[in-house]
Amino acid sequence: MTGPLTLVRALGLLAERPSLLALALVPALVALAGMVAAVWGVYTQIDLFVAGWAKPEGWLAGLWWLTWLLEHAARLLIVATVVPWVVMLLGVPLCEPLSMRVEQLLGGQPATPLGFVREVLNSLRVSAGLLAVNLVGTLTLLVLGFVPGVGVLAGLFGVLVWAPCLLALDLQDGALSRRGLGLRARLGVMAAHFPSTWALGLAALPLVSVPFLNLFGLPIAVVAGVLHVRGLEARGALAAADPSTSRP
């Protein structure tokens, strides 16, 4: 229940502090613009099966309609796959002011803040990197899905493990970066506290995956990432991170 409870705490914090909602507005609007652009691109700029194929008469009309349905199903699949990551790529970096403000409200800035511009640029870099890793991993799992006996396991792994872990890493990145932890150290923290980190990612996945819901769900998920990191810090878990993997 760690993940859902953290999200409930994040929602409560946003509801109690109207000023935080204002910081969540800009990421939501930018993510909405990116989502609309992605959907527009998929439906107007990508030619699939029936482009240029005039609807025939007779029995070929049935084949045309079947192809038309397959084309729209393919477009929906592309949208469902791409849109959540477009929202994350644009929204997570712009949620850094929200993340930093939550840190201030809950007990001051960490000892090694990166500054606003560096925070946003660092978060954008990490989000882009995770997007690339996700695409490679998703394509690999998609190929494995055609292997008899492996397809179901690959699909379950992708939905229940792969996507939640990447999401949790992205949601916690800003808070961990402000504490001077490099990528290896962040991965080490995630591995050392895998159950709670995975639960956070799994619970937040619907909030960032469902179109339009993700516009409001993403700020909640980002705040939950900050709360999770602060919880680990309060238990002394971050002190065990290898200093050699931290930022200078």
Short description:
With 248 residues, the protein is an all-alpha fold. Helices cover 77% and strands 0% of the residues.
What report would you give on this structure?
The protein is mostly helical and 248 residues long. It has a domain at 2-25 and 97-245. The protein is built from 9 helices and no strands. The protein has helices at residues 2-16, 18-44, 60-94, 96-105, 116-144, 151-178, 183-192, 194-209, 213-234. The longest helix is centred in the first third of the chain and has 35 residues, at 60-94.
Shape: globular
Low-confidence stretches: 242-248
- Total strands: the figure is 0
Structural class: mainly alpha
Query: Could you report the average pLDDT, rounded to the nearest whole number?
Result: 76
Fraction of residues in helices?
over 70%
Q: In whole angstroms, how far apart are the ends?
A: 36 Å
Task: Write out key terms for the chains shown.
248 residues, disordered C terminus, single chain
Outline the fold blueprint:
Blueprint: H1 2-16, H2 18-44, H3 60-94, H4 96-105, H5 116-144, H6 151-178, H7 183-192, H8 194-209, H9 213-234
